[in-house]
Structures are given as C-alpha cells and as structure tokens.
Task: structure prediction
Amino acid sequence: MSTRERSPLGREHPIAPFERRLLSITACERLGAYLVLEAHDPGGHRPAAGQFAMLAAAERWGAGEDDRPYLARAFSYARWHAGVAHFLLEDVGPGTHRLSELRKGDGLWLLGPLGRGFSKPGQGRRALLVGGGVGIAPLAIWQDELSAAGEQATVLLGFRDRSHAEGAALLEDALLASDDGSVGHHGLVTDLLSAELTRNPHATVYGCGPPAMLEAVRSLCATLGVPAQLALEAGMACGFGACFGCVVPARNGYLRVCVDGPVVDAEQLERVSQSTGAPL
Result:
C-alpha cells in the first residue's frame, strides 16, 4: 500500500512503498531526439504531476564493464493514463542507452511515485509552464491536470534544435524557442518568459529543465516578484532520501531533491546550483 504525504505547499502526494514493481513495456514512441516509453502499471498509484520514478531495465542492467548501470535512474512521469505510465528519455549515457533499447514486451523495474510535485496557482494567478529539453516531461502531465481542472496554461518550451523540438508534441499549444533558430524564437526560452511576464506578471511559473535555465527562471521571477515552482535535477541513488546523494544548497541549509523536491518553491533557493545532475 502506498501512503500519502502533504507538502509544505498544501498538496498531497502519493508516496510509493519500499518495493519496486516489475512492469511490461507496452509501447515505444520516437519523438525526434527523444523516446517515450510506456509501461503498464496496474498496481501503481496515480502520480502527482512533478513526481518521479526510479527505473531500471529488467535484464542486462549491470554486471560487467560493458553494462555499467547498477543503480536505477530517476525519471519524471510525463503522463499517466488508464494505468499506463509514460516517461520521456534521451540516450545520453549508459543508463539511458539501455532503457532506450527496450521494446514492447520487455520488462522494466519501477519504484514510484516518489517526491513532491507541483501545486496549483493561487490568488487567481495563471499557470505559466517553462521547460527545456527533456525537462518538459513533468510539464506535460501538469498541463493534463490543469486542463482536467478547467484551468488553461501558457506553455513555453526551449530546445537545442529541430530534432529535439519534436518533443514538444507532448504538450499542447506550446510557444517554442531553439538555440539554432530552426524552430520558433531564435534564442532562449527565458526570452519568451520575460516577454510573457512583462505582458502580464500575475502568474505562477512552473519550470523544469537544465540548471542554467532554472537559475535564469528563478532570477527573473525573483526580480519581478512572481512566484515560481522549480523541478530540480540531481543525481539520485535511492529515491528515498537515505543516501544523501542528491543534496543541493538552499537558503536555510540543504535539500534532498528526492524527498524535499524535486519540485521546490523558488524562494527556498539562493540560486540553482550548476553542479546538479549526473550522467544517466
């Protein structure tokens, strides 16, 4: 049985038991540079947007020089529909490479949902979703939740190039930016954010992406007095806060991203550390 925990922002989050589940891959969809893995999880609890799971291939997950992964890898839920969990990944390291080889019918170990997710905007504020690269994943399920509650969100996404920008298909009606100018605005997604907040600052910003992008979002929102919730990236080993491998500095000490986050109020951070993250 999973339990539920209330976050400091007042939102309840399902917390998985200390037991992983063996799932079956039901589909693999290529989105440009990314892959969407879908796995049937009939015994799992519906995740809150912003929560994550620890994933590992059921076979060939370590044991030799050519099979380096041993620890599971953390991935945000990108979608949850009828007991099927969706995850977005990019082949950037030995762990993600093995996961990217999975096909329909293959086994996947999953532990989740874990961590704290997003909370709805208050005081009549509009939701402004800002994502970069593979960090768009938790914004997709968040857009789903907001839409189901009758709330519309403005979505701003940034990518390296046209191939990566195909990942934007996970969300609806997104405004795009690209580093090389091949899609949408030629520049940073935070350029789009600045323009949106200049037009109407009565918003709550939700961000997920690489540390440099999140720091730019945090800094801009702090300057304008706009509340923001940031989904942090950090290398995780356990997912339950026992190993302290994902600790990041905060204004009042340190946070364990896996249990105190991954979603945190931007006001908790002096800045977003550029050293977060690890090869997947």
Observations:
- The two ends are 29 Å apart (CA to CA).
- Confidence is low (pLDDT under 50) at residues 5-10.
